[in-house]
Amino acid sequence: ATLSTLLMPEITRAAERGERKTLQRLVQRTLLVTVVLSVPAGGLFCLFSGEIGMLLYQSEEIGLYLCVLGPLMPLMYLESMVDGILKGLGEQLSSFRYTALDSVVRIALIYLLLPRFGMQGFLFVMLVSNLLTSLLNLHRLLQVTGLRVQWLRWVIKPVFSFLCAGAACRFVLQPLTQRLGLPLLAWAVLGAVFTSVIYALFIWLTGCAGPGDFIVRRTRKKAG
Fold first, then answer.
1. pTM for the structure as a whole
2. 184 pLDDT exceeds 70?
């Protein structure tokens, strides 16, 4: 939300002035930051789904649901950010069409699947709905701006970095801390912090993003 508040006026200004290169650079940066922050958010819900389920709900079943829904978080982040960019570019009608389509699809799937499959059907509806809206919005944004998906930087490197961080947490940190007999809450907090630090390190080592990508400098109009 903070990022969109800072960057949306810049994106709108670049579009109004016809500064295509500046617009593309701002959109690329926004999408990169969104992905880099959302992948660990969803990943942590998957990695510590069991711990969260037991701590908050005393239920292993809830932990399973969190693990299934965790990978949807990057899509939710992306959908929200891309929708904001499209509105800043004057594409409100496209956003409205996709939202209306999503509502129709979601209602139809709930009507067909929920009575028969229960919670599993609801999880499937969530998956289809988020995939549909995020991909449609992203496709429209790429059309409007002329950008292409940077698979290596936007997908492969962030996912690889979190997989490495998660593996280090489970196979290195957890065996070491089990001997200490830490309470569940302490282990979850320690594991999340450790995983986040390792993830940030890999993001930097792979060249996916650096500190400069998260610093927003507002441009000033030069005096004529």
1. 0.86
2. yes
Query: In angstroms, rounded to a whole number, what is the distance separating the alpha carbons of residues 28 and 22?
Result: 10
User: Which residues make Cβ contacts (< 8 Å) with residue 131, sequence separation at least 6?
Assistant: 75
Residue 66: strand, helix, or coil: helix
Would you mind telling me the total number of residues written for the chain in this entry? 224
- Across all residues in the chain, what is the average pLDDT? 88
78: tokens are 């992306």
One-letter amino acid for residue 145 of the chain:
T
What is the C-alpha separation between 83 and 138, in angstroms, rounded?
A: 8
37: pLDDT confidence band, cut at 50, 70 and 90? Answer: very high
Distance separating alpha carbons of residues 100 and 192, to the nearest angstrom: 37
Tokens of 175: 């065996």
Residue 4 scores a pLDDT above 80: no
Q: Are 82 and 35 in contact (CB under 8 A)?
A: no
Q: Is 221 helix (H, G, I), strand (E, B) or coil?
A: coil
Residue written as token pair 């957890």? 174
Alpha helices, DSSP H, located in the chain: 2-17, 20-47, 49-52, 60-69, 73-88, 92-117, 119-145, 151, 157-168, 174-178, 184-205
pLDDT, position 223: 41
